[in-house]
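Pasting as-is:
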Amino acid sequence: MAYTFRGGVRMNEYKITASSPIEVLPAPDKVVIPLSQHIGAPCKALVSVGDKVDKGQLIGAVEKGLGCPVHASVSGTVEKIESVYTPQGRKVEQIVIDSDGENRISPDIKPYRGDIYKVSPEDCIEAVRVAGISGMGGATFPTYAKIASAIGKVKHIIINSAECEPFITANHRLMLESPDEIIAGLRILMHVFGLEKGLIAVEDNKPDAIVKLREAVGDGKDIEVKEMKTKYPQGDERQIIYALTGVELKAGKLPADVGCVIFNSETCYNVYRALALGMPLIERIVTVTGDCVRNPKNILAPIGTPVSELIEFCGGLKEKPAKLISGGPMMGVAQWDINIPVTKGTNAVLALSEKFTAEPELPFSCIHCGKCIRVCPMHLMPLFLARNSKKGDYDECEKLNVLSCVECGSCAYICPGKVPIVQFIRVAKSVVNEKRRAKLLARQADAQKPAAPGKTDTADRPAAEKTDNLKTASVKEQDAGKAATSAKEDNPNAAETAKTASGQSAECLKTATAQTAISQKSETVNTDKKENSK
């Protein structure tokens, strides 16, 4: 039996591009490269309008803090540097490059000189940082930081190749066409972490990919390809960890806290390229699909390519889409502009008709069937979270662990009452996070206030002064004829010191995503027992 987790849903997959080979998109006439494509601080432009740039040249870098550099994906001339608003409402700078069609490779691109399978952790981290690689499964967390934070802590390295959302087949095609590079990237990371074994998690709806990966591993016993049960959200790191190790990742904890580190298969592929070729992350595989696309395809596109050119490469649109989504239908982001650029986190572009995007008829109503509780992979009670959020009782939402919600959308998908559960939960999470942030700032402000004159905390007195007070009290007791049997080590009259609250960092607010209701019945998966075949 395949490995799985408790909860989740089975849904129609619509993976119509699973048999479509990856096609290389010719360099577009113009690319638009945002300076913020990752979690962390945005980059600062290192080029000016009119500058000539080469393919792979560094054009933006983070001055300090967490972040990833960005590189030119084509050779050409910088046309302009402008500020624009993202679909999430953030204002970011972007560099517009006019391509000269030459695709000159930057002379700065150089492969690692030593044996890539014996690279030191420091050299690997630096190579990955310079290449600007971020998590390509959608999270876009800087990969170099993930590697650095997990060294010495992990016992399991897992390559996430589940690709559980409907429509998306980018990772599937990569596994079929470049399995050797994925395996090579995994072995590099295994050496860096000092691990003798690695795992690759693939859903059982991709049997051809499982065969290809096992063939690439060969007779080696160092890597196992694990067959996962096809179920959403199998690709969530918490569910993969539980399915393969039996360990539940608690809210607020990272995989490294339970001895695991997880990378997407395309991330792993690019780690190999960064070391073997010196190539930065300047292109990625994008699944362009949906019932409005004339010829759906998997496309290897330069970062910064307008989505409109990807759609044109697929033969254009059969009809005007009701919704354009960057990412999958469950956790993707609805777009208002067909000319948005491909970024490091763009794994799919969906053009969907009203068949998939029809809004539920109002009024919606909870019928207390409990299906949302049964499918929740985080074992929460979505109906109560939605109800309390709707009436504004966010304190109760916090008590019910609203921040543990991963916003996978399983609850809203399965809800027969068409309650927009995830939207209510997002509002509650936003309010709870804001309240926690305000409390943290208030504590920090109080800590910086100078002490009131004439007031000294007893707990801050020198130890010698406390000892003298104890001796004086003891002498007085003896003079009064009361013999003390032993001296106390602590001052009985000292005021108890104020406890320092360990401020919990407010988790980054997730941007509101457009969740698409797929108009087909789902098969509810009710698994109370772990169906692992270890």
